[in-house]
């Protein structure tokens, strides 16, 4: 059948107590083969041995194919996760940016507009709250009425950095004179 590779002879049992032994055999044609050996027993008596050989090059080929398929699968999963993350981020950031611009305009004194929308989610509730705020400020007639009530205080609104895409809110501070 061939010669047994003495370095890898009887590499040991496979996991568990199955009695299967694995060894590497080099055949007469020079092809290395994995040899799986399992005894045939009945009522504790050995009746023979089952030996199965499989050429290593076929196993290496199958392992290479599986490695390539796993790499392709991993790339596809990463691409899908990236696309879904991009879509989810845009879905969240666009309404927030719209509200951010409206709040900046309102902080600058321009409350003569409402945000039109047809949303029925939390962003719709935020837009409705902003619209209610704008209507209440417009109905006062004088947007500076709160400042007139506090003659010894100055309200300072600092603009966020234009290069900052993290949507940090503007900072409001009240300073006593």
General description of the model:
It is a single chain. The chain is of the alpha+beta class. It has three helices and seven strands, in the order E-E-E-E-E-H-H-H-E-E. It has helices at 56-107, 122-140, 145-149; strands at residues 3-4, 12-13, 21-26, 32-42, 45-55, 153-158, 171-176. Strands 1, 2, 3, 4 and 5 form a five-stranded antiparallel beta sheet that branches. The protein has a two-stranded antiparallel sheet with strand order 6-7. The longest helix has 52 residues, at 56-107. The chain is rod-shaped. The N and C termini lie far apart (102 Å).
Compile the SSE list and pairings.
Blueprint: E1 3-4, E2 12-13, E3 21-26, E4 32-42, E5 45-55, H1 56-107, H2 122-140, H3 145-149, E6 153-158, E7 171-176
Antiparallel strand pairs: 1-3, 2-3, 3-4, 4-5, 6-7
Helix pairs in contact: 1-2
Task: Please indicate the percent range of residues in DSSP E strands (runs of 2 or more).
Answer: 15-25%
What about the largest sheet?
Answer: 5 strands, antiparallel
**Average pLDDT level:** 77
Give the structural class. Answer: alpha+beta
How many angstroms does the end-to-end distance come to?
A: 102 Å
Taking Cα atoms only, what radius of gyration do you get, to the nearest Å?
Answer: 38 Å
Total number of helical segments? 3
Low-confidence region ranges: 1-15, 154-160, 167-177
In one word, what is the shape? Answer: rod-shaped
Order of H and E elements = EEEEEHHHEE
Helix content: 40-55%
Number of strands: 7
Quickly list its features.
alpha+beta, 177 residues, 25% strand, 5-stranded antiparallel beta sheet, disordered N terminus, two-stranded antiparallel sheet, rod-shaped, disordered C terminus
């Amino acid at each position: 059948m061939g010669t047994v590779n003495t370095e890898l002879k009887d590499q040991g049992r496979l996991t568990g107590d199955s009695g299967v032994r694995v060894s590497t055999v080099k055949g007469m044609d020079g092809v290395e083969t994995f040899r799986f050996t399992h005894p045939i027993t009945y009522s504790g008596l050995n009746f023979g041995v089952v030996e199965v050989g499989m050429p290593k090059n076929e196993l290496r080929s199958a392992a290479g194919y599986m490695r390539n398929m796993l790499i392709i699968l991993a790339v596809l999963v990463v691409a899908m996760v990236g696309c879904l993350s991009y879509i989810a981020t845009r879905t969240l950031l666009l309404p927030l940016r719209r509200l951010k611009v409206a709040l900046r305009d309102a902080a600058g004194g321009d409350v003569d507009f409402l945000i039109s929308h047809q949303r029925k989610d939390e962003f719709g509730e935020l837009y409705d709250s902003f619209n209610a705020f704008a209507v209440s400020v417009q109905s006062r007639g004088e947007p500076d009425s709160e400042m007139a009530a506090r003659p010894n205080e100055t309200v300072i609104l600092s603009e966020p950095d234009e290069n900052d895409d993290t949507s940090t809110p503007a900072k409001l501070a009240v300073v006593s004179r």
